[in-house]
């Protein structure tokens, strides 16, 4: 999965410097992180909740925030489902996520739920941009609501960890979640 940022004239703030765009996006992600921390439990996952998380992260910059994409991008070597399939895929995903989330009883159940949620959202790739960050926010929401710290799948400045993460996503694309579960399992820490 690669990096993608709209042309500078496509943002509300008319920022032309890529570094400043990245900083504004990071501020939005922090805002979305606070939003998910403020949600009351138990969580009921819905399309509307996911769109609101995305809108909270990116709505101060982009008009596409919180809306399904209308074109099919190429993400590295991956071609996501066409836009007309997104609504049905997302509703099914939310139903499955709620079932899995509501039936977690052990740490391993939580790992399964986190891996499923993270990969499925990245796989569907419903938004124009910010899908990976939205997947990590969703993963954090699940972890927090189950009493765990956020799951740090990789750090941008740590190349090897990012490579392992991307390889785990590629394996998950082939229905093998084991590597992604290993990464998540290594990060599963109870809140203090």
Automatic annotation (TrEMBL):
The keyword Transferase applies. One of its GO terms (molecular function) is transferase activity. It holds the Pfam family Fic. Residues 45-186 form the Fido domain. Keywords: Transferase. The keyword Transport does not apply. It comes from the Bacteria. The active site is at 125. PANTHER family: FIDO DOMAIN-CONTAINING PROTEIN, FIDO DOMAIN-CONTAINING PROTEIN DDB_G0283145. This is Adenosine monophosphate-protein transferase FICD like protein. It comes from Adhaeribacter pallidiroseus. The lineage of its organism: Bacteria, Pseudomonadati, Bacteroidota, Cytophagia, Cytophagales.
């Amino acid at each position: 999965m690669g990096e993608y940022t709209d042309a500078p004239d496509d943002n509300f703030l008319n920022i032309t410097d890529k570094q400043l765009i990245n900083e504004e996006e990071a501020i939005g992600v922090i805002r979305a992180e606070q939003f998910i921390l403020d949600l009351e439990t138990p969580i009921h996952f819905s399309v509307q909740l996911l769109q609101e998380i995305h809108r909270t992260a990116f709505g101060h910059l982009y008009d596409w925030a919180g809306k399904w994409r209308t074109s099919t991008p190429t993400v590295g070597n991956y071609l996501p489902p066409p836009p007309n399939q997104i609504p049905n895929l997302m509703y099914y995903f939310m139903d499955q996520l709620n079932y899995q989330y509501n039936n977690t009883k052990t740490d391993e159940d939580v790992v399964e739920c986190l891996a499923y949620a993270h990969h499925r959202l990245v796989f569907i790739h419903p938004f124009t941009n910010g899908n990976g960050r939205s997947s990590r926010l969703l993963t954090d929401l699940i972890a927090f609501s189950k009493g765990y710290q956020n799951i740090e799948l990789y750090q941008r400045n740590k190349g090897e960890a990012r490579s392992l993460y991307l390889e785990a996503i590629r394996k998950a694309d082939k229905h093998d979640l084991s590597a992604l579960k290993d990464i998540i399992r290594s990060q599963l820490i109870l809140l203090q």
